[in-house]
Structure formats: C-alpha cells, structure tokens
Amino acid sequence: MNQELHQKQSRHVWKKILFFSLMVVALLFSSIAKAQTDPPQYGMPFTGVPDIRDVNMYQVHNRPYSAAGNFAGITARLDSIKALGVNVVYVMPIYPHGTDSRSSASPYSIKGDTSVATEYGTLTDFRNLVAGCHSRGMAVILDFAVNGTSWDHPWITANPSWYVQSGGVIQQLAGYSDVAALDFTNTAMRAALVASMRYWIFAANIDGFRCDDANNPPIDFWTNTIANLRGITTHKLIMLAEGDRQANYTAGFDYDFGDDFYYDALTPIVSGSSVSVIQTITNTEYASATGSQQMARYTSNHDVETTTTAIQEFGGHAGVIANYLVCAYMRGVPFLTSGQEVDFNQTIPWPYQTVKINWAANLGASADFKKVNNYRTLSEAVRRGTMTNYSDNNTCAFTKASTTTTEKVVVMVNMRNSTQTYTIPSAFAGTWKNAYTGATVTLTSGATQSLTAFQYIVLTNQSVATIAVTGVTMSPTTASIAVGSTQQLTATIAPANATNQNVTWSSSNTAVATVGASGIVTAVGAGTATITVTTADGSKTATCAVTAATVAVTGVTMSPPTASINTGGTLQLTATLAPANASNKSVTWTSSNSAIATISATGLITGVAAGTATITVKTADGSKTATCAVTVTAAPTFTVYFYPPAGWGTSIKIYWWSALPSGVLADGTWPGVNMTNDGNGWWSYTFTNITSTNLIFDDGANQTGNLNQNVTAWYENNTWYTTNPGTPVSVTGVTVSPTSATLAAGAAQQLTATIAPSNASNTAVTWSSSNTAVATVSTTGLVTAVAAGAATITVTTSDGSKTATSAITVSAVAVTGVTLSPTTASLTTGSTQQLTATITPYNATNQAVTYASSNTAVATVNSTGLVTAVAAGTATITVTTTSGSKTATCAVTVTASGTTTTYYNILNRWQANTYLYDGGNGQVKYGTSPSGNNNYQWSQVAGPTGYIFLVNRATGNMMDVEDQNGAIEANVGNSTWYSAMWSVVSTGDGWNYLENRWQTSDWINIQALAGYAQYSGASSGFYSAEWQFVNGTQVSMAQHDRNYLADSAAVANYNIATPNNGEPLVHSALSPNGDSVNDVLTIDNIANYPDNKIMVMNTGGTKVFESAGYDNTTKTFDGHSSVTGAMVPQGTYFYVLQYKAKGITKTKTGYIVLKY
Fold first, then answer.
1. Is CATH 3.20.20.80 correct for 59-146+184-256?
2. Which of 47, 518, 844, 1088 is 20 to 30 Å from 367 by CA-CA measure?
3. The domain defined by 1065-1154 carries CATH number 2.60.40
4. What percent of the chain clears pLDDT 70, i.e. is strictly above it?
5. DSSP letter, residue 36
6. Which phi and psi (to 5°) does residue 282 adopt?
7. Where in the chain are all domains bearing CATH 3.20.20.80?
C-alpha cells in the first residue's frame, strides 16, 4: 500500500533564505517587535492555571454533549465536570464549518478561524462557558486546526497563495477531501494563523490550545508560534500537541498526545501482549521531553469513539478504570472524554451529529474516576515523583517517589480480565496504607499477591485520614413522575471529602415507585412512595416524596415528516409523544408499501425499491398517529473492473479510502477486500451508495498507483476505459528504425519503435542509452549526440519486456575558430572582468581553451577567463583552443584604483538596440535611448562569492525581485537581500543569462514585451533572456572635492548632501587618506539623536563595524574594523542605522562606498 495515504504531506522547502536579516534583528533590533493586532482583553486572565504536571484533563465533545449540542448544554454540567476532579477543560472546535460541495460538516473543515458557529451559540455564550470554568478553578484550552480550511473559507479567494498548489490548483490536505491544505512556506499565512490564535486568548480569555494534527506543520512554525503566544505574559498557557513527534517538545509544547501509548501499549495488552511494552513505549514517548513536559494519556477520545468505545475496548467499566489509573498514575497526565464518567457505551460517528450522550447510562461510574483523579491531586509523588517500573507480563506495577518529601506510593494493576498473581519485589516490602481507605497493608518480598480481574491496589507510606460522614441531603426532596417515566435523584454527602461515599437506596412502596442503585426512580403505578438514601458510614438518611400518576397521550409527531433515501439505505424516524411525561409511550410502526420501504419496530426505514410509501406511527394509548412521506430512489452504483498485468497473483483485492459522500463508506483496511473473478482475466467490484472513491488494486505483493473513479469503468495497462476493451493482446516483439546512425555532436536523430502485433493492447515503451556521455535518448525516442564515441540505444516494451536496439556513432567536430568577448576592457587595480570565449562551430567536440596574459604585472587571468587588474598599464589576454590552437585576444587597460567606477549598458539579444534602465517607481524597464542617460548605466558591485549586485548610476537602486510581483524591481535594498544578488551565466556564444540567487529558476527577460523587465516566462535558449554588458564607462569619483565626493552624476548617486528636514542623513562615501576631507563616515544631524546605534557590513553580510552613540567625532568609522581593529578593504558596504526620535525607534538602511 502507498504509505503516503497515512502520512501527512511534506511541505515545500523555504525558498527565501533570511539568515542575515534575522541576524541583524537579533544583533540590533531585539526590542523592535512586529505589532500584533490583538482585540482588547476580555475579563481577567485566569490565575489558577495548574502546573502542567498537575493537570487532570477533560474533553468536551460539543455536539453530542447535550440535546441542543451547544455551549449552554456544556455550561449546565460544569459542576459535574468539576466533581470528577478535573482542572483543565479541553473544548473541541467551535468554529463555523464549510457548507460548499467540497467541504463537510466536520468541525475540522473550518470556514472561519475567529468566528463562533451559530450551532453552538455566540461569542458571549462561549465567554460565559470559559468564565464558568474559571470560577470553578478549571482552565480552558481550545481545539485549533492549523493545517487547512474548508473549501469556502474566505482565504481561498482572497489569498489563494496561502494554500498548497499543483499546477495552479489548490490541493486537499492528505486524505481529507473536505480540507484545503495550507502552505507553510507562506509567511503571511503563518502570521494569520498566529493572529487567530492570539485572538481567542484575548477575546475569550482562554488558557491555551489543543493543536490538531500537530505533527504536520514544519517544526519551525511551532517554535515561532509558541514563542509568540508565550510572549503574552499576562496569560499562563497550556499547549497540547495532538501528535507524537519528538520535536514537538523542542518546539515548546507542554504535551504530546498519547496515541502511541493507546495503540502500541494499552490495546495490544488487551489482545494479550506483555505489560512490559508499557515501559518500552514510555521510554520512546519521553525521549526528547525535558523538565516538566508530559504525555497526555487517554483510554478514549473523539477519534477513537467513531469506531469503538472504551467499554468495548477494555472489557467493561472495571477494565476502563484499571487502564485509566495507569494513564493517570504511571507517567503522564490523565485525559477523560465526554460520557466516560457514565460508561456511555455507544460510538459517535463522524461528524458527530447523530448521537447524544445518555447522561443516565451509569451514574455510579463517575465515583471511580473521581477517586482516581482526587488521589492524584492529593499525592505529590503520583503527580511529580520519580517512577520505577516493576511490571511483569500481566501486572503493571511501579513505585512513585517524591523528589521533595519522603512520600512514596506503590501501585499494582491487573491488566487482565481474569485473576492473576504477582510476586512482590523487595522494593514493595513493608507496611503501607491503602491510599483510598487508610487500611494497613503489609507486603513481604517474594510473597504472592492475588489480583482479581482488573483489580488495582494503591498504597502509600503516608497517613490516610478517615473522614466521617456527618450527614446527607437529597435533591429533589419531592417529585411528581408520570407512570412509566423516571427521575434521577442525587444524594450529597457531607462533608464532601468524607472517606466512605457509599450509599444505599430504598422505596417505601415498590408498587408505586422503584429506585436503582444509582438513585434513578421509576414510576410503576399511581400513588405515593418515599425514597430513602442511607449512608454506609453513620446510617445518615434523606428522603424524597414521590407522587406517581398516569398521564394520557394527547398526540404524537413524526420527525422528519418527509424523507428521501436510496434503495438499500436506512433512516431513523423519531416519534415524539405529547405530553412528554405521558405514561404509556408504546407505539407501533407501519408502512403503506413494504415493497418500497419497510419500517422496523424502532422506527428504522429501509429503502427496498424506487417509489413512494407512507410510514405511520400509532400510539398504544389513544391511537394517535403521525406520518412520514418517504421517497425511495435507486442507489448510486458503479462497478470497477481490473485486468492484472502479467506476473500478478490469482487473488486480486481492492482497497479504498475517502469515499464520497463522506460518512457512508468507511476507509478500507489494507490490503483491501477480494474482488470477483469475472473470467477472461477480468476482476470486478461494485460500489453502492457511493458517488466516487480513491482506490488501489493489489494482490498483496503488487499494487497499482493511487486511482480514483466515479463511474463504471475498466482498468487495463494503466488506462481507464468507459467500455470493455476486451481481452488484451500481448506484445510479441518490437523493432526499431533506423538500426544504426552516425551523428555529429549536438545533432539529433528520431528513432521509431514498431510493436508486434500491431493490435497489441499495451504499446507503451521505454528508451535507454548505454552511454549517456556519448548520446542521450528522450522518452519519445529522440536521440541527441553529446560527444564523440559509440552508444547503444535500447527500446523496451512495457508488456513482455521485448527489446530492440540502434547503434549510434557520434563523430568528432573540429574547431574552426574562437572569439573573445569583450575584445577590450578598462579596469581599475583590484577589479576584475570576466571574459567569455566562444568556439566555432558551436558543436565542436573539444571545447577546452587556455588563457594567458602578455603582462602579468599589469593583469592576470585564471583558467576560466577571469581577468584581475594588478597595476596600471596595458596587457593582452589571449585565449587559445586546445584543438587547433585557434586564438583571440582582449586588450586590457588598467588604471590606478580609487579614481573610477565602471558602469555598463545591459544589451538584450532579442530586441535590437534595447537596454535595461531604472524606470522609476521601483521598476526596471527597457528602452532604446542609452546615450548620455545615467538611468541606463549599471555597475557590478561584488557580492558573496559568485554573485554581484547591479547598482544604477543615476538612482543608486539595485535590481531585485524582492516583492515577487512579476517585474524586475529597482530598490535601495541591502546586502541581506538574496533577491538582489545575480549570477552571470554564460550561454557559450558571447551572451549571458542573469540568474537570481533567491529565485534560482528566474532569469531577467523581456519575453512578454510588457514594457518592463520580468523574472519568469523565459527558458534556456530564449534570446529574450540573454544579455551583454557593453559600453563600459569609467566615472571619476574625485573631481568634486579631490576626496571622492563624486562628479555631478555620482553626487545624485550617493546622496551626499541632499537636505532631509533635520533627520539623520548618512553620507554615501568616505576616503580615509589623512587629508581631513571625508576621512570618516559622516552622518548629518546625528548630534540631534544621541541615542543611536549603527552597524556596517560587507556585501557578504559580515559585520565589520558597530558603534552606539555615533557622533562624527569621537565615535566614527574611518575604515578600521571595530571587530578586528584592522583596516577593511575598499569597496561597497551596507549599513543599518537605528535611532530614537521623540521616544520612537526608527531605522534607516543603505550602502556606502569606501575608497583609500
């Protein structure tokens, strides 16, 4: 099976590397934080959030929790939740769900991250719920899903770039067809998620989050998000990861979720595995946990309950309590889900809309959960102590020892549904107190302890006080109950912490009313009776006077009154009698046409055939009736057929997942179910009541890829057919034409494969080359000659692996000449010039060349043609071909450094006489008027190795793609911008591609002829993306004030004296040569801003100078590094200036030029 079906999709790798920007922020601007748009704080932040080791957690399952499935229903039971010993309430998603065709009613198909779904109530209702928890000493954490949204979420249309896309199409989240996947490479999307989480902390006063599918996002998302949230210092937050990734701990989560503990320890033990697996899983779970970080361990949750209940899984109430105690006491915090406290034993199918919890299922069950939780809260050793494991094959046994006191606790739990014996280890020997009753227990090393099914023993070395019962009260004290109805009575013992909480119930007249062990009264006949509760400790009593009367039925209604179902489908009808307390609630159900639809004794309709029928319900008392008009339609059905390839086995299976409509057909279990053998090699399977599904055909060893189908179809040779293609015709052979060919390097030859017989079903072939250094072959059989030599091209059929070959000979192509570009170059000492040699013909076999300088004292040249100016003078650079000794030259003139900067026009190959220029408004345009126009001139400023910055002479702006708006931009920028770094990549024939460092597949081009330069839309070989640096112009930097103040053009370029209304102005040039003119970096008006800090960095991003309180006199930059003390090389540097103006911190960035 394709494992990706059960794994979360990986995310795109960050393309933009921001390491230097982050370094600058960390070094200089740690006090400057991005403003958060948070709502006003509602209420007072809760001060009672428990230590994460002390948590007893309770999950509120919103929809099934009450009849209305709303906040009011939860709020009404907060006292019951608190009585369980709970101190943290986890509320499932409260947001609106999607309503379009691709979304679902799932609470995790979210349409609005900062809205409350009307099905639950209003924001005020949720605030009341949170406040009710806080007033009872319970913190609240909210379920939050970060991985995706519904398909009708506003972000889908407003911000489609926030989603994972393929070919411009937004993708679903893994196997969840109702969720659109968010793209974690998008920083704006990340910020929106964080803002939404912050909203709930402020707007609803919650105390943390349960983060759905926390394993899916990249770990740096959680690291940054949790750090951001914990920056809200007014709130102590609890962060629960619904995941088992170890890195969740290092990201800052308090808890990972105990899925491994449940699925790999508890449930295997139920099936007979050794209890020792608990320690193995515990070691794995806590491998990366530090400090007080914990696992949240459960015996059920909303996901588990879709298919099974804790009662079913663990063999009844006693088994649930035994496993819950291990979760609570061994290592981790206990997690209880809604309904477990009454042993509610019914699955709650996704999306949790069809079932309501019966809170009267077993009222006595809660006492055991209270006992476990309350002792955990009482015992510091259990909550925070060091655990030592002494388990054997059947018994989970361990000690918990406090690290701050002498308290020690011994725990023994029989994990089996049968009596087991356990040998007492020496560590258990001694006299102890039963932690719940205070009874004295002596354990002897080596003795045998018998434990009944699921029995648990908890012992302590501390005194256990016995608290006597002083009284008991009954609620209500009077009750009028219709015959046949029930009434729950509640006994409250005083004091609340009395040791013995046991009571008995009795009725003075069981002919009128009976009472169960949990206090449920059933009215049997008309009359009166007194119900008495008696405490086991002290025989304290309280009573309730019950009056039972017969209440006649006055009417009945049907829900729904109309219904549409498919053949084979079912629908539950509900009859509601009036009044609600009518004594005789018996009804009968009938169908007007059982050939169309049948009805069960409980009101379950089953569609039989297409047509209509009327379902009638009749009351036994009074013969009141109500009806439902039922329309039955033919169920959607389709059949898939599969013809297995040769070599497959004889038992063909089909596996499916994410069938639509959701909730009808559960995902299959790998490797799937058997298909039907239809003969002639075909196998089939029919889907009913399903409109579409994902599927895989397999035989246990082989499998197809991931497929999808929604109509009857035949799958053969990796192709779907809408009609039966018949029995396939096997391939018997293949030939190739031509069988041999001689090519020159760079030439191409199309080969043709002919399959026999001509009507073979599978005509697919693959091509391969025996020597790709000589010749390559495409998937269509197109051969390309690479270099002299021989290669064999082979074609292989997919069916039968038949082969044929073509012998390819590639002949050598002689060199006839070479040219060098440029042919002249003017350089300053220390500068460089890349020369490009172009061999003719372009496909000459031997492309090797060598370079030489006629005067290495003036200029040197390396093996790649990079010329370095050494000293003033002239030199001739010669390139010589290895084959044929063809030559070409470049005349190089070198002048002394410190006097000139070379600016170039950048010429396009495609459009004649077309050059790039700074067109203003942050955009690089192209035109045909470079003469005398400084906007057309660009200097090559050295950047990190292999990259340059392209700086405009007129504006000082750099070319970049920072905003990703489709255009090449011209901005001030700085040396941290990968978006402004370019590599010059030779085309091999005298032209160059200009490739961006950040967007590595983006080249400067004018392919669209849009009036401005672009960075996409061109490919290799497009002349629109090929450029030359021409018309090199040396500009003097020493004419104005003899110390590199620049000529008239450069004054504008370096902004040396532009007025700026009193704000700091950084001069863009300095020449520290001791003549007292521009010997230091000058910042105009800096004296007005003494609270300042400046950092200077080279183009590689390395800090060379830093100073606080820069003042142009005592604290200055004169070329000396504040890091090493040495003079830094001349060249271009970038600066970041931070200063305070009227209490507000401001920042300026830019670049300067240093010349000696």
1. yes
2. 47
3. yes
4. 93
5. P
6. -60, -45
7. 59-146+184-256
Whether residue 995 has pLDDT greater than 60:
yes
**Tokens at residue 245, please?**
């990734």
CB 546 within 8 A of CB 529: yes
Structure tokens at 1056: 């040396």
CATH fold group of domain 733-811? Immunoglobulin-like (2.60.40)
702-740 exposure pattern, b = at least 16 Cβ within 10 A, e = fewer:
ebbeebebeebbbbbbeeeeeeebeebeebeebebeeee
- pLDDT tens profile 250-297: 999 999 999 999 999 999 999 999 999 999 999 999 999 999 999 999
CA distance 161 to 163: 5
Give the closest residue to 747 by CA, choosing from 656, 820, 810. Answer: 810
Which among 550, 549, 577, 553 has a CA at the least distance from the CA of 480? 549
Selected from 1.10.260.40, 2.60.40.1080, 2.40.100.10, 3.10.20.90, the CATH number assigned to the domain covering 471-549 reads: 2.60.40.1080
CB-CB contact of 834 with 942 (8 Å):
no
Pick among 2.60.40.1080, 2.60.120.10, 3.40.50.300, 2.30.30.100: CATH of 817-895: 2.60.40.1080
Sequence-distant contacts of 425-429: CB under 8 A, at least 24 apart:
425/390, 425/397, 427/388, 427/390, 427/399, 428/390, 428/397, 428/399
pTM of the model: 0.50
pLDDT at position 978 over 70: yes
Judge contact between 1047 and 907, C-beta under 8 A.
no
Model pLDDT for residues 1087-1141, shown as the tens digit of each residue: 888 999 998 888 766 788 999 999 999 899 998 888 887 888 887 888 888 888 8
CA dist 785 and 744 (Å) reads 7
pLDDT, greater one: 1041 or 808: 808
**Mean pLDDT, rounded, for 899-918:** 88
Contact 1145, 1059 (CB under 8 A): no
Pick the CATH number of 638-721 from 3.40.50.720, 2.60.40.1180, 3.50.50.100, 2.60.40.10: 2.60.40.10
Distance, in Å, from the CA atom of 1110 to the CA atom of 169, rounded to the nearest integer, reads 53
CA 793 remoteness from chain centre: 45
Q: What pLDDT is attached to residue 638?
A: 94
904-1031 topology per CATH:
Trefoil (Acidic Fibroblast Growth Factor, subunit A) (2.80.10)
Collapsing DSSP to helix, strand or coil, 253 comes out as coil
Pick 19 or 64 by higher pLDDT. 64
pLDDT at position 897 is 60
pLDDT reported for residue 898: 53
